[in-house]
Amino acid sequence: MKKILHLTLFLAIISALAGGLLSAVNSLTYPIIQANQLAGVMSTLEQFFPNAEFNEVEIQGEVTTIQNIYEADGEGVVYKVGVDGFDGTDSIVFMIAIDNDNNFAGYSVQECTDTEGVGSRVKTEEFYGPFIGSSIDTQIDTLSGATVSSTAVIGGIQEVVAYHQANY
User: Fold this and answer.
1) 140 with 109: CB under 8 angstroms?
2) Nearest residue to 159 via CA among 76, 98, 105
3) Which segments in the chain show pLDDT lower than 70?
4) What pTM did the predictor assign?
């Protein structure tokens, strides 16, 4: 019985030390990881608004597809969106920019695991070309043959437009 208590106490001490060490390492590395992620996003943000300073904004209210919002001081807003394409949950992650005149200023797919040559066509100018530069009230058409993926992206864009109209 004494041996069981001794081993239990030893295991509890080792677990507490390991947990504390993991917590300490996480607190040291978390800011570095966040900075690296933001640097990766910054290159895309700067494609939309090259001379702007960007600030990440807290999302207000309930949203289903918007993951992050970045304000470009004096130029517009960029939204990071994740939608469920043909390949499953958040299989398409894209960024879409809206300028201060309420026009689509840019679109870039960050990640797309949908079928190459079919669902992945949402990355091509064939999809985004017709609406970039136009008003956010413009009707966006789906792609024939990539209906599931393009419909999902359009749904995400519609949520962005609704959010933008309500908050900006």
Assistant:
1) no
2) 98
3) none
4) 0.77
